[in-house]
Design a protein that fits this description.
Helices cover about 45% and strands about 15% of the residues. By secondary structure, it is α/β, with parallel strands linked by helices. It has two domains: about 40-315, Ribonucleoside hydrolase-like (Inosine-uridine Nucleoside N-ribohydrolase, Chain A, Alpha-Beta Complex), CATH 3.90.245.10; about 330-375, no CATH class. It is globular, with a radius of gyration of 23 Å.
């Protein structure tokens, strides 16, 4: 009996040492392979609806967490307060130097806004007149980036992207890794057709040289009510307050869903759909194809999506992080193993383990957070 206990203890100790050694190796390797922030250009029609504002707030919060490098914001509407409002939001998040480009051609039946004039009263130093064109910003910003490194998240009309693709198709092919388009896959009735821009949308979808992903979910995902608890100096809060006519409610989150995918990829939230066809109201159709044209299906509930999005929307500027709500995935063998490693490391060296996990959590959100939440 004594011998068995002794052997058991020795075997247990050896198992502990082996697992701890593997754990340290895994953590070191993961930290060495930390993913760099995703380079993003945000293409928005921030005007008639307010979810564009929520999407921009998310991008700033994700930038504060080290997940995004926000390269530029481009505006595809023509509202006189658009550039100023975008710059005011960027300024609130301590990024007032981010390039903002605007559409300066005529636009059929421009939209009005309940909030842009008010948001434009917040501190800023850019106007619609002084802002460069979106095409100028695209060409300047893209030229400075590594090849195949930029993700463009389009949550509005495709007029700016049409002009870019017409002007500089080789630049697009060389620099852009993916275009994420918020719109309906079949017979979209807003982003891909409004202002008589359906032909421009067709040109972009037909000729975009790389991966193009359609994001069409968000109607039943309601966010924004929690902005009531943020400071009155927050222009994002003001935009939602004005949009809801001096109240706070949850608004559909089409644009935020597109941003979440554009930054974090499929992750635990989405799966890629490459079956079937897309179609525009002018009759143009395109086949879905893996790695080229696809759309998204959502894997988590609206409530889980709302928690993730709203936590980012209400995050204060400057990197003051809040605990991030996460979907609860079905645990896999790998994540169970990593959770065991986590507990062992915390017993062995709690300070080092927590610091390492925090660095990994911030740098590799897509898959590695799975094990931080599994422990």
């Amino acid at each position: 009996m004594t011998i068995n206990i002794s052997c058991g203890k020795r075997l247990g100790f050896l198992s502990f040492i082996c697992i701890a050694t593997v754990a340290i190796f895994v953590l070191t390797a993961l930290e060495a392979d930390a993913v760099q922030p995703k380079k993003v250009i945000y293409e928005t029609d921030m005007c008639l609806d307010v979810d564009d504002v929520g999407g921009l707030a998310m991008l700033h919060a994700l930038a504060d967490r080290g997940e995004v490098e926000l390269l530029a914001v481009t505006f595809n509407e023509v509202h006189k307060s658009g550039a100023a409002a975008i710059d005011a939001i960027n300024t609130w998040y301590k990024r007032g130097n981010i390039p903002v480009g605007v559409y300066k051609k005529p636009l059929g039946r421009p939209d009005s806004s309940r909030y842009l004039d008010s948001v434009a009263k917040f501190p800023h130093d850019l106007t619609q007149k002084t802002a460069p064109t979106a095409l100028e910003v695209y060409k300047r910003v893209l030229a400075r980036q590594p090849d195949h490194s930029v993700t463009i998240i389009s949550v509005g009309f495709l007029n700016n992207l049409h002009d870019l693709l017409k002007d500089s198709p080789k630049l697009v092919a060389r620099k852009v890794a993916e275009l994420v388009v918020m719109g309906g896959l079949v017979n979209d009735n807003f982003n891909l057709v409004r202002h008589s821009l359906v032909n421009q949308s067709e040109y972009v979808i037909r000729n975009w040289p790389g991966k193009l992903t359609i994001s069409q979910f968000g109607h039943k995902t309601h966010t924004g009510a929690a902005l009531k608890g943020t400071p009155k100096t927050n222009p994002v809060r003001d935009a939602y307050f004005r949009w809801f006519k001096q109240s706070f409610k949850g608004r559909s989150s089409w644009d935020q869903v597109a941003v979440l995918y554009g930054v974090r990829g499929l992750n635990l939230y989405f799966k890629e759909n490459t079956r079937g066809k897309g179609r525009l109201s002018n009759g143009f159709e395109w086949p879905l194809k893996t790695g080229f044209r696809s759309c998204l299906d959502v894997k988590i509930s609206n409530r889980e999506m709302e928690k993730i999005i709203e936590e980012l929307m209400i995050a204060p500027p400057g990197g003051q992080r809040r605990p991030e709500p996460r979907a609860k995935p079905h645990l896999r063998a790998g994540s169970n193993f990593l959770s065991v490693i986590d507990r062992i490391l915390k017993r062995k060296n709690k300070t080092h383990s927590n610091q390492a996990l925090q660095r990994i959590r911030l740098r590799r959100p897509a898959e590695l957070r799975r094990y931080a939440s599994a422990g």
